[in-house]
Input
Amino acid sequence: MRNVAIVGGGITRFGVREVGWKDLVQEAGKAVFDDVSNLDRKDIDSLFVGAAQPERWVYQTHVAPLVAELLGVDVRRVIARTEVACASGQAAIRYAWLSIATGLSDVALVLGVEKMNTKHMNISQTCMVNVGNREFDGVNGFTAPPFFAMVAQRHMHDYGTTKEQMAIVRVKNAKYGVMNPYAQFQKEVTVEKVMGSRMISPPLSLLDCSAMTDGAAALILASEDIARKLTDTPVWIVGGVQVVEHSHTVNQMGDLSEWKALRKAADELYKMTGIEAKDIDIAEVHDCFTISEIIEYEELGFCKKGEGGKFIEEGESYIGGKVAVNPGGGLLANGHPLGATGIRQAWEILMQFRGEVPEGRYVSGARIAIAHNLSGMAQLHHLMAYSVEKPQNLKG
Amino acid sequence: MKKIKLPDLIELPPLLDPWDQQEASGADATGIYEFYRNLAEGDLTTTKCRDCGKIGFPPAIICTNCLSDNLEWVRIPEVGELYAFSEMRLGAPMILDQIAPFIVAIARFGDYPENGVQMSGMIFDSGYDELKIGDRVKWEIIEIKGPAERKRYWYCFKKV
Ligand SMILES: [Zn+2]
Output
């Protein structure tokens, strides 16, 4: 396997954007080419596009060649659109990594995009209800909020987690989001404000939930020799895994408060890379709901099972705590354009390692970061590990 | 200038109707039609493997445990336990927004996971504050009245 690095990134402002899907693609594409200004676009041989449901939200399919046209890119090795719902973006990074690592591709453009806000928001909700098994769970109203509400209810029941502890996750991520000009939400919040926000699906209030968001993000990935020519600050991909255990329908999920597939993914990633939970400086995790981030602390091994609520309460996931979790504001502050989120997470890590974020959300001296995406009803967990060091230098 | 005249109202097939997969034959047929026929006769059933004994849910045409296609239809025990629940208050998908708010629930029937099932279902007859984890619930067959040509059936949960 060849070493693969992220050499540059670009992002659009996330939010309810009064622009179209194709505009978002061009905004993010222009931003990434501006960032890697010494790259000749002719050297890009592959393109991976993360997009979850463009055929439902904007009635457009076959989107990868459309992105190639919109950005003036000619592909000669690999072109694909990746779809695994909420983690479609990270999947695009993964396939670019694989293609370059094997030697098939040398330079790849990776772009994730989603346009989720339309005039018909109940159709958007219908897109989301089809992420579960439509015939047997979607039909019973299993969109994300009621499902993750049940996860929260069980975690409160099984481990004593409180609604206050969940609210602190939003307070933390909103605080960092204010320092991120690309984030959808630009206001700090208090625990009282989160807990007093309108109840969406009890026990989850509006501010416990991430939003339906329009946005795009892009990266350039390259093999080691080319990366060295393009940048002095490459971010190396040091590992990546995905775990699903034939679990899609509610019957296969077992206990909702335990995400065994994430625990297994973390074990696999740590084994693959030689990284331990205590080595991680930055964790970009999938806080689609406040409760998700609490369970992720536990399953990623940052604290003991059941103690995720205490972990945030004691400030351990703030910058300066045991591990800086979502220093860019996470999904809660950035919003969650499905195909773009995984790429936004990698972009945040790139900016952190390059020191190009404001002081208040800068994790000084960070060397190792992980990114966690989950998809659907937490059935599938996706992890990537990034470092300023090459993978060979991390293995003990 | 030449004009293209479209009708004032464009009728689309009910693409977003979640209860569309109940047909016995034709292009919309399903291999688990017996599940729907049993619902119409008042029974909530699923497939059990005659070779390895595993109860599957949702029902399917092969056993996901051993891949055998030697399956039998078994009745899901009528009374189970409420495992988790919430309420769809805001943000219901199209069609379901017509009946919101409703309780969204997960219940366990039989000896889950070894010899039972964990299922999702809606609850209509109890409010959120009237329910608690561990409540005994039973399944009940409901009729879906709507734009389809034939009668359609589904199930919901009800507190015992
Ligand atoms: Zn079997």
About this structure: The first strand of chain B starts at residue 45 and ends at 49. Chain B has one helix and seven strands. Residues B 49, 51-52, 54, 63, 65-66, 68 surround zinc ion (CB under 6 Å). The longest helix of chain B spans residues 33-40.
